[in-house]
Write the structure tokens for this entry.
Amino acid sequence: MLFDARTQSGVTIVTPAATRLDAATAPALRDTLLGRIEQGAHLLLLDLSGVAFLDSSALGALIATAKRMGPLGRFGVSGVQPAVARLFALTHMDRVFSIHPSTEAALSRLTA
């Protein structure tokens, strides 16, 4: 699984190349996000604008990322599509994660 990672305004933005994040891709997602934190990313954003499906194992990778980030910095999610938004709402993770409608909105909030 490939991920595009770039830094903009001090925020590390990770964008999955896949439209599905599931049990097959969750380990790579977790390793990529945690690796960025280990490399010193204190402002981390996962851009899900191209992701149409996310399952519980991928959600677990996001939870692991949020736990690892802890007080070190901030972790946010942007561009959540309707099906993914429903999963966040059903699991109440929409109350846990900082969810932004777009990367631009996330950048302004994460860097404020």
User: Anything to note?
Assistant: The beta strands are 3-8, 11-16, 20-21, 43-47, 53-54, 74-78, 98-100. The longest helix spans residues 56-69. The radius of gyration is 12 Å. DSSP finds four helices and seven strands in the chain.
